[in-house]
Amino acid sequence: MTSHKIVLLEGDGIGPEITSITRKILELLFKKHNIPITFEEKAFGGKAIENFGNPLPEETLNACKESDAVLLAAIGDTKFDNLPRESRPETGLLKLRSELKLFSNIRPVKIREALIESSSLKKEIVKNVDLTVVRELTGGIYFGQPKGRINTKEGGERAFNTMTYTSHEIDRIAEIAFDLAKTRRKKVCSIDKANVLDVSQLWRERVIEIGSKYKNIELTHQYIDNAAMQLVRSPSQFDVILTSNLFGDIISDEAAMLTGSIGMLPSASLGSGNPGLFEPVHGSAPDIAGEDKANPIAMILSAAMMLKIALKEVEAALDLETAVDKALAKGFRTIDLISHPSHKPCGCNEMGERVIQELEAIK
Ligand code: IPM
Ligand code: MN
């Protein structure tokens, strides 16, 4: 059996802590399931800027292209805030997504039973939440040209970005959302700002056109402002949310809080052909870096998505998810999840060790 090659990008902030425990968990899981695997750790983000002057060194990009899957923790640090845009950590992430042509970002938002009381919303509101955000990832205002900053004649500066989509970009992400809905509750809600933006008007027209080929899928549309409100008013109305890059970025952080913490949310960034990138929805949390306080679960669940989607190791993925649920059911909680005096507070490393114990207990 040929060995799966996984590139690990630990990145910045809490990245190294959540990566090292996730790697330990995966090594055990692979041994248990007899899955041959090799890990390659590569420089990425702020640390790559410091060591190589580039957030995405050529060597890292090539290793990612040649891998079976890329598992990323998080990048970014406030100390890079004043660097020119092209040499910031986030630019490295955008370049990686774009170079690997990962146009669809799948962000499942499912309430884990043990965490129903951890949400900032009432239990009755969140109890049936099971939605997936399908976010377009390589277009829209993140990448549109022209963009930049210029000095104006009057003295001051002008800065601009362009929100742009082609019908081709909209069609292919819409197909991903409709195909996903077929395997779920058969509902797609497309989120746009078609009452104001031309780009959203095209978005809506194309989504309707693509949707007409999926006879059994119910298609609805919401404006982003209304959707942001609906998501906290009655989140269980959503099945698949289809949206653009920027709106998806915003709405998925909001949706994350339904689950109790943004530290819970995994994601998969996929294209057609190239290796996928599996990354938590959260950032690098530099304020708690190195303090053993981070919640490693979003990265562990991203690894489960990688097992399922990229490596087709479905059984191992299910084991991993079960182990996470069992550790949570026993009351172990990182600080972001504590909502009851009976909870057993634990650090990043211990949370991972508890998952390992549960994995070992699964036959
Ligand atoms: C995310 C992040 C990134 C994004 C940043 C770090 C570039 O917020 O994955 O949601 O905006 O896409
Ligand atoms: Mn984000």
Commentary on this structure:
The chain is globular and about 60 Å long. The chain is 39% helix and 19% strand. It has 363 residues and is of the alpha/beta class. Strand 8 (187-192), helix 7 and strand 9 form a beta-alpha-beta unit. A ten-stranded mixed beta sheet has the order 2-1-3-12-11-4-5-10-8-9, sandwiched between helices. Strands 6-7 form a two-stranded antiparallel ribbon. A two-stranded parallel sheet has the order 13-14. The model has no long low-confidence stretch (mean pLDDT 96). It has helices at residues 15-32, 46-52, 58-65, 89-99, 123-126, 167-182, 198-211, 224-233, 245-256, 297-309, 314-329, 348-361, and strands at 4-11, 37-41, 69-74, 104-110, 130-136, 148-152, 155-160, 187-192, 218-223, 240-243, 268-270, 276-278, 332-333, 344-345. The chain folds into two domains: 1-105 and 265-363, 3-Layer(aba) Sandwich (Isopropylmalate Dehydrogenase); 120-259, Isopropylmalate Dehydrogenase (3-Layer(aba) Sandwich). The protein binds 3-isopropylmalic acid and manganese (II) ion. Manganese (II) ion is lined by residues 249, 253.
Largest sheet, in brief, is: 10 strands, mixed
The amount of helix comes to: 25-40%
Top-tier CATH class of the largest domain: Alpha Beta
The CATH architecture of the largest domain can be given as 3-Layer(aba) Sandwich
* Cofactors, ions and other ligands in the entry: 3-isopropylmalic acid, manganese (II) ion
